[in-house]
Amino acid sequence: MRPIFAGTAELTEVPAVAVVIDVMRAFTVAAWAFAGGAEKIVFVDSLAQALDLKAGHPGWLAFQDGPPVPGFDLANSPAMLGSLDVQGRTVVQKTTAGTVGALAVADAQVLLCASFVVAESTASFLRQRQPDEVTFVITGRDGRAEEDMACAQYIAAKVTAPAVDAAPFLGRARNSAAAEDLAEGVRRGYRGIHPQDVELCLEADRFPFAMTAAWEDPGMVLRPVAVPRTW
């Protein structure tokens, strides 16, 4: 498998197989939501669209990043997600990096969204499919987010070397600008950030599912897919 690493803005065509990475925090939150029993996650282009979908579907939840926004149920914090009952529910998600990257490659033949918590399952999914080429979309900081690149390179390495040590990759993420920004937000008391967010984003290989996205009503929908270990 030949890995290609590219920022969202660097994509010149839709790849056949894409893995969209957002470690801090969109696709970590998505994974924790599925672990809590959420049925599916719908990606949208705007906050207004998210609220419209929520209003039209009683019982749906809406997640966004940044400080809390009226009408939304969560500000993209994996730690704060624990206070919500997501069992059997649909989540509408709009973020500035992760969902944008996913929608940019929405027409890929195979589309996965990933973070460290689903890295092993994502690698196992790719190992089973054996694609010749995989494009890893680095969504944070205009394609330069160190935590996203570290996660992408970890997944790519695990496809061919399943026992690769996660520690060096997690160390890069722990020392990234995104991790420091979250820590600074905690120190300043910013709303929408929890002191445990970074640690929850760095629990490598926690969940036994990958996350695949495809077009279905009412748009681009992300679902968990159980993936047995292949080594």
Could you write a compact summary of the structure shown?
This protein has 231 residues and is of the alpha/beta class. It is built from 8 helices and 9 strands.
Would you kindly provide a written description of the structure presented here, covering whatever features stand out?
The protein is α/β, with parallel strands linked by helices and 231 residues long. The chain has one domain: ComB-like (putative 2-phosphosulfolactate phosphatase, Alpha-Beta Complex). It is built from eight helices and nine strands. The chain has a nine-stranded mixed β-sheet, with helices on both faces. Strand 8 and strand 9 form a beta hairpin. Helix 4 crosses helix 5 and helix 5 packs antiparallel against helix 6. The chain starts with a strand and ends in a 5-residue tail after the last strand.
Strand order within the widest sheet?
Answer: 1-7-2-6-8-9-3-5-4
**Bulk shape:** globular
Instruction: Please write the string of helix (H) and strand (E) elements.
Output: EEHEHEEHEHEHHHHEE
Flag low-confidence runs. none
**Main beta sheet:** 9 strands, mixed
CATH 4th-level superfamily: ComB-like
CATH-defined architecture: Alpha-Beta Complex
The amount of helix comes to: 25-40%
Features:
single chain, 231 residues, alpha/beta, putative 2-phosphosulfolactate phosphatase, nine-stranded mixed β-sheet, 9 strands, 34% helix, 22% strand, globular
Q: What is the topological layout?
A:
Layout: E1 2-7, E2 17-21, H1 26-35, E3 40-43, H2 47-56, E4 61-64, E5 90-94, H3 98-104, E6 110-114, H4 119-129, E7 133-138, H5 146-160, H6 167-174, H7 177-188, H8 197-201, E8 209-216, E9 219-226
Parallel strand pairs: 1-7, 2-6, 2-7, 3-5, 4-5
Antiparallel strand pairs: 3-9, 6-8, 8-9
Helix pairs in contact: 4-5, 5-6
